[in-house]
Amino acid sequence: MGTRALVMAAYLLLPLPLAAQETDNENPAGKVVYDRWCAGCHGTDGRGEGPGALTMLPRPRDFTRALYQVRTTGSGELPTDDDIMHVINVGMPGTAMPGWEDLLSSQEREDLVTYLKSMSRFFNSSPPPAQLEFSNAPRVSDDRIAEGAEIYEQVECSKCHGRSGRADGPSAPTQKDDSDLPIYPANLTQNWRFNGGGTVEDIYRVLRTGLDGTPMPTFSDLIDAGVITDDQLWNLAHYVRSLSPEESPRIREVITAANVGDGEGGLPTSPTDERWETVDKFYIPLVGQIVVKPRWFNPRVQNLWVQALHDSADVAMLVSWSDPSRSPNEEWAPFAQQIVEAMGPKDEGSTWAPGAPDQLVVQFPLTLPTGMERPYFLQGDARRPAYLWSWRSDHDRAVEMVARGLGTGQEQPASSQQVSAEAAWADGEWRVLFRRSLATPDSTSDLQMPRATVVPVAFQAWDGNNGEAGNQAAVSTWYFLALEEPVPVTVLITPLAAFLLTAVLGLVVVTRAQRREKEIPGRN
Ligand code: HEC
Ligand code: HEC
């Protein structure tokens, strides 16, 4: 289950116009489809102010302004019909805008293109847009990537995107889109979230056309002015592409912790120990916590990476994730304030205040489940408590807690704390290393991890400089941590994982049904 599936699920929580109307002259075919599928976000009048709009950053597009980002035409130009069709088909990765290719027929999608264009007079009053001439991608090479890296510094991409591309440049905390809403530069190490697509051709195209309405400039004029050549722009695109993994990360339900035995210096004791480079990395996508109020639709920590090892006595778990700033941070406080204002529906009540730290929670059940049962994925409940390792950037240590519901965690007394953590922040990335003995003397309030077991584990993350605190966090579903012995335990897992996914999807559907019941009182 990808993040986008959950975004889609979140969208379905929104009250939608119920019945589709009949088609006639007043109701062109595109309008019927639009009102059913698009108006919830983009608004019936196309101004981008549908019932769900305030929960989204960037906001849904206002079609009356004819401003399109994913184009093959010059900066400030209208898109071609094919451009609009393309974005309707595949959506805009990294935003709330889903793709519709599988859901709507090609006739319906064509009707939508016509209908969207009818919402702005610009399409009638301007000559048809001319597609830019794009050269073909030259074959990638180390030399090209190296030259691209130099151009990246030369034309100051790093001012916004940061030296490492993790959106941590000095100008990042001041960026706004043309609706005056705060906007982050893209994290260039995650090309699968680029709005216009993640291939080198997509990146080159965005560099030629810019992303209208955002601070992301076009670099076509640098070519026209002879500052860089077209070939150099391709090298830059290859360099940007090289910052992300070759393939988009796959989700694996089982995080394996290999047994390092007593050899080779035992477990790494630092989050920056270079031995971590050789340990398998597991990708965990997160989504905003949208079940318990105050909900959070704009999580900054979109995903994290987990690595784990054990030596039969202790387990070591390294969690790393992109975060452009170490919270709290005065330079970012005004940005966080703007995010809170942009995201805060009045009934919800943010608990964020300046000075909020970054936080990470690693969640386990308090006791190992015997069958398929696990605690509720948001820190358990009265019947099945969760056992947490909770780390905060302002304390720079981790504590053990037992929770019976989101935010109810009780810190265990200092004398019985068993977990230790060491954190490092550099170049827009946190790395937090947790360590605990597998068995502890305190079996009533600590999860015991016998050897060769499989332990359910989940994650929650907060970026203080993104206005996150309390319930307003990014959360994952349950995964499994497998403490490996020479006999692989992974064989046992697949049925458990399948069950788990079904359970979570079930939850989303149930919540949605309950909300709709509540929100449509007039229905009979
Ligand atoms: C869940 C909310 C949501 C739904 C449903 C949705 N959109 Fe969007 N859409 C967005 C958001 C948010 C953006 C702006 C993203 C950005 O600016 O980065 C967007 C942008 C767009 C764009 C602008 C593309 C560009 O190049 O800038 C088009 C076109 C579009 N949507 C068409 C549609 C159509 C057609 C439908 C219905 C079939 C639809 N959308 C349904 C949220 C939604
Ligand atoms: C003034 C700040 C700024 C500068 C300078 C800048 N960018 Fe961006 N860039 C942004 C912002 C903001 C976004 C995100 C726009 C959005 O989310 O819609 C972005 C998005 C991107 C994306 C993602 C495109 C997509 O499809 O979502 C890429 C790739 C990118 N920039 C590359 C570059 C490169 C390479 C340079 C230097 C040549 C550069 N940027 C210079 C602000 C900047």
What does this entry look like structurally?
The structure is a single chain. This protein has 13 helices and 14 strands. With 524 residues, the chain is of the alpha+beta class. Strands 1, 2, 3, 4, 5, 6, 7, 8, 9, 10, 11, 12, 13 and 14 form a 14-stranded mixed beta sheet that branches. α4 crosses α5 and α9 (200-209) packs across α11. One heme C binds at residues 11, 37-38, 40-42, 52, 56, 58, 60-61, 68-70, 84, 87-88, 92, 95-97, 100, 112, 116, 195. Residues 11, 37-38, 40-42, 52, 56, 58, 60-61, 68-70, 84, 87-88, 92, 95-97, 100, 112, 116, 195 line the site of one heme C.
User: SSE string, helix = H, strand = E?
Assistant: HHHHHHHHHHHEEEEEHEEEEEEEEEH
What is the radius of gyration? Answer: 24 Å
Low-confidence stretches are 15-22, 516-524
For the largest beta-sheet, the strand count, sense and barrel status come to: 14 strands, mixed
Number of E strands: 14
What ligands does this structure carry?
heme C
CATH T-level fold name of the largest domain: Immunoglobulin-like
List the helices and strands and how they pair.
Blueprint: H1 3-12, H2 29-37, H3 39-42, H4 81-90, H5 106-118, H6 122-125, H7 142-154, H8 158-161, H9 200-209, H10 220-224, H11 230-242, E1 254-259, E2 282-285, E3 287-288, E4 303-310, E5 314-322, H12 333-343, E6 359-365, E7 386-392, E8 397-403, E9 410-411, E10 420-426, E11 429-437, E12 454-462, E13 474-475, E14 479-483, H13 494-519
Parallel strand pairs: 1-4, 1-14
Antiparallel strand pairs: 2-4, 3-13, 4-5, 5-11, 6-7, 6-12, 7-8, 8-9, 10-11, 12-13, 12-14
Helix pairs in contact: 2-5, 4-5, 7-11, 9-11
The chain binds heme C (2 copies).
One heme C binds next to helix 8, helix 9 and helix 11.
